[in-house]
Amino acid sequence: MVAPCQCSKSSSAVKAAANLEDKYLSDDPNHPANLICELCRLFYDNNWVTGTGGGISIRDTKGENPNLVYIAPSGIQKEKLQPWEMFVAELPDEKLLRTPNDCPPELTKSYKYKPSACTPLFMSCYSMRDAGACIHTHSQAAVMCTLLWEDKVEFEISHIEQIKALPRLKFNESTKKIEKVGSMDYFDKLVIPIIENTPHEEDLTDSLQEAIKNYPGTTAVLVRRHGIYVWGEDVWKAKVYNEAIDYLLELAVKMKQSGIPTVRK
Amino acid sequence: MVAPCQCSKSSSAVKAAANLEDKYLSDDPNHPANLICELCRLFYDNNWVTGTGGGISIRDTKGENPNLVYIAPSGIQKEKLQPWEMFVAELPDEKLLRTPNDCPPELTKSYKYKPSACTPLFMSCYSMRDAGACIHTHSQAAVMCTLLWEDKVEFEISHIEQIKALPRLKFNESTKKIEKVGSMDYFDKLVIPIIENTPHEEDLTDSLQEAIKNYPGTTAVLVRRHGIYVWGEDVWKAKVYNEAIDYLLELAVKMKQSGIPTVRK
Amino acid sequence: MVAPCQCSKSSSAVKAAANLEDKYLSDDPNHPANLICELCRLFYDNNWVTGTGGGISIRDTKGENPNLVYIAPSGIQKEKLQPWEMFVAELPDEKLLRTPNDCPPELTKSYKYKPSACTPLFMSCYSMRDAGACIHTHSQAAVMCTLLWEDKVEFEISHIEQIKALPRLKFNESTKKIEKVGSMDYFDKLVIPIIENTPHEEDLTDSLQEAIKNYPGTTAVLVRRHGIYVWGEDVWKAKVYNEAIDYLLELAVKMKQSGIPTVRK
Amino acid sequence: MVAPCQCSKSSSAVKAAANLEDKYLSDDPNHPANLICELCRLFYDNNWVTGTGGGISIRDTKGENPNLVYIAPSGIQKEKLQPWEMFVAELPDEKLLRTPNDCPPELTKSYKYKPSACTPLFMSCYSMRDAGACIHTHSQAAVMCTLLWEDKVEFEISHIEQIKALPRLKFNESTKKIEKVGSMDYFDKLVIPIIENTPHEEDLTDSLQEAIKNYPGTTAVLVRRHGIYVWGEDVWKAKVYNEAIDYLLELAVKMKQSGIPTVRK
Fold this sequence. Notes:
Four copies of one chain form a homotetramer.
Chain A: H1 7-20, H2 32-45, E1 55-59, E2 68-71, E3 87-90, E4 95-98, H3 105-108, H4 119-129, E5 133-137, H5 140-148, E6 154-158, E7 167-172, E8 177-183, E9 189-195, H6 205-214, E10 220-223, E11 227-232, H7 235-257
Helix pairs in contact in A: 4-6, 5-7
């Protein structure tokens, strides 16, 4: 999948945003509303969010108010998202500060936007892990791993160099938070919990929270027959962790198909 | 496959179109003639319409006359299509209102254009399902599924999240039409009929119509050893359904190869 | 593989070419020297000509002198080719009319260009089949088919829709030439001869010519453990035939791996 | 993976670089600092350096001081690298002449850059083989080959045309150096040593140097469960060798999975 070049479209969208004089929009390409659009195009090209699947949310960790959370809308073609289509909520009470439904009808064309169905799951990552961004994809490698190990509740892999891109997480007794204390080692075993899918995305919240609690070392949760949630300290860490994990999941599928165990004794 | 960037070419083509003062062409990137070109480039990059295979038709559902149907020409390289190369017909009697053969010879270079051989199949989707657009691809995942289940007349898959991107369709007693009443559920079984291929594309019409009649819940028909037809209420719905179905067909090939049943009991 | 965007580079190259006042170069994007560059970038993105592999030659069938043949140089990164780097020869005696070695040293940087090692093979397609263009790739699907059917001297496939993109060829008694008389049918068996590889590319000439002679219906020759040669009446036909054949070779590998015969009885 | 188009960003980065009046930066697209950025985007698109994996170093073989070596920083997203982020060291004593940490804080945002962990390995290629550039990727084909032949310390392949893209290397008695004396032949056996991975990348140095010493004919070393190092006389040769080797590794995985030996007796 290669999304059409958005060079010119993006800049005109940015201008339209400027005209809106909307304090939740910006010309800065690193603004959360703009980054969500850029990353969704990238994820679409990777076949991770085709068919309106998947989602992303970014907390404005570098902005004036680091409690602001930007959330992509539900059911929209991810590669065509525009910055003005974002929802904005404020932590910790998740008060909705901005909805694209307040934009002029020339933009919304009277479409009624809803925040991503993943919103309560994103919020769990923010509240339980102090995440700076959370990515959800329908990656086929993720789905295949949950099918190839259908009787397991954990995906495991060890002794692959790419594991070193993932964070070593530890409970900090003084801050009472899970914090990054370095990177995983080559010989470490990466363990990602797999939770069972539910008919409604929001119903995943309880089991996702339980997995986050039970696996203090994980920065991701796989959802059987569905996809994966990955979070990180900021948007770029979340992106890098997601890439590294997807690389490992893709490799694990190939290893399984060739009869090579993913964990070396 | 990555079609060459058409940034500059497209805009000059749009200008050429404007010079034609042709009421079936427009500067608006969302005009059917322009969207057919954009989507064909995208489909080419997905290996769905290489070698002049596949086709697409869009009904101008948002235009002044929603009975106007735009149809790509037959046998042309899909990634190089230009807006002026479209045929336009009017429903319900399918009267041809525009042919690219009326364009100046500087453009046509005396090539004799013919409407896509899929035209009667597209028309079946318009007349029987009130579709807003119809997509036909030679997707290898689609062909492989018809080969891996060669003795079946239906492709089936259940319990995969991506199924939720597809529409729940139901016969409306008052309008006497099949209408979308929501989306499919995660645990629903998606069933797509498979019809046998024929030497001439137009000879598929009868069996396609029969499949549409017999499967009121489907928004797609697979053609054995050939590809797939997917339609939707408008062009973007058709695109999203096609992406979601292709994702599921690709996954089904992998599941079959790993001995995992596509339907969970 | 996605070659870096050449939008701006190409146009400056065209300008540089114009400055050269070279009658074998042109601003027209459809000029053979420009098309070779465009197609090589496309082929690179398809993994067909990476590592300087593969090659292409175009005859100027629409130009003033249709006997002029443009040939890409040997051993150059295909995705970085510039129009001024082409060789030009004239049929039938293959006299060399232009070599990039005559360009100013600012361009050549004193590199000594040689015409593609495929040149005698391209010439065979021109002389024996009156081809308008000839494409040579190291496609992995092509190599895999010659390995999966290592004991066969023909690749065969039938009853796949994409076969219809290929030409039906016949000997014309009056012109004494092999000519296109239509397209293949869905149920036709496509047969592509496989010749054995040789240490030096030019040593393939005899067996390629023999295959062309023995298979009057073919528009391509596979080379065992090496790749494929595909030609057509003009450059676009050659491109479309090559795409359609590669689609079929890719599908054939998948069919073989799933135990599905490529020819239906 | 398709990295976002950097057309406009690159040029502004080049301008920012110019403002820096930094003698290790240049407007010339062929300058090592610019080439590292261009190639990292290309490698990212090939899934070779996702998740900050991999690395590259280029020696300024065409510049005033051919002992200058440019090195990408450690742990940065490879597709987003900017020319000013490079380290520069001088051979043979590897004295660090430039660090991005000296750039203004508007650029560095106080991030503390470190040179790639591969630096001692790159330096081994420069000192032992007089290389002009060295590429390190986490290519899945490379990792899979080290897993599929887990009990072997060499990867072998013969009788594939693409082998001819690789150099024939020989010890020159008068210069006391390993030098390129031509290209490999089709029927030659390409042998690439496989070394075992270590927890820390720099600890690979000894075994990499031993492999380089023991395999005078190789231009690459595979690292088990990790990736590959490839070098060449200059940056373009290194790129071409890396592409050709990755093509062969990808093919070898397919051959192994189909039970076809990679070496023909």
